[in-house]
From TrEMBL:
Organism of provenance: Irregularibacter muris
Full protein name: DUF3784 domain-containing protein
Pfam families tied to this protein: DUF3784
Key word Phosphoprotein present: no
Domain of life: Bacteria
Lineage: Bacteria, Bacillati, Bacillota, Clostridia, Eubacteriales
Keywords in alphabetical order: Membrane, Transmembrane, Transmembrane helix
Membrane-spanning residues: 6-28, 49-68, 74-92, 112-132
Amino acid sequence: MGILYSIAGLFFFLALGIKYLKWDFLIAGYNTMGKEQKKNVNIQGLRRAMGNFLLIMALFMIISAITSHYGYRGLSSISLLAILPLAVLFVFHSQKYDHSKKTTSKTIEKRFILGIVIFVLGIVSILFIYAMKDPQIEMNQKDLTIGGMYSNYVKKENIKEITLQEEIPKIMGKVGGFDLGYILRGSFTLENKEEVNLSIYENKPPYIVIITKSGKIIVNYRQREETLKVYQELKDWVKD
C-alpha cells in the first residue's frame, strides 16, 4: 500500500509541475519538437490535459490502496489495471491540441503512446515481478529469514511453534503491505482482529504458520508440494 501511495504522490507532484509550473520537458513528443512545430500545438490545453490525466492516475492509485486496505482486493486490482486503457484514451484525446501536419501528428501520437504505455507498464510490471516471486526462506543455526517484497527476520530462540494448516481465518484488511488478487504480502488483520504477517497465495492451502514471541507469520507457495517440503524443512530445523 505504501508503494501505491508513493506512486500516487509522484503523479500528483508531476501533475502540478506540468499544469501550473509549465514543466513542458516532461511531455513526451512535445519536448522533442522544433520551435516551428511547437507553434502549432495548443500548449495551454495540452498542459491542462496532461496534468488532469496524471491527477486521475493518482486518484486511481489511491482508490486501489484504500480498497485493498479494507479487503476489497478485486476492486483494488481493477482500479490499478484501469490505468492502462485510460493512458491509451488520453493519448488519442491529446491529439486535438496538435495542429501540425498529419505526418507530424502521427509521429507525436506514436511518441505519446510509446512513452506513456511503457511508463505505466513498467510500474505495473515491477509490482507484478515482486509480488509473483515465491518467498525465499533461509535457515541457519540461529535465525530464520523470509525474503521477498516484505521480508521477515526471526531468531530461532523466539520461535514458539510451527504448524501446517489447511485453513486460516478470513483476511479482513491490510495494515501495510501489498496485494494483487490472491497474492498477499505484508501485514494484514484477520477476522479475529489478530494482526499477522502474510506472504501467501490466498485460497491455495496449506499454509505454514510460524508463531513467534512477537506475533505470527503465515507463508505458503503456489504449489502444495513446495509448501509441504518447506514445512518439513522448518520442522527439522527447529528440532536441531
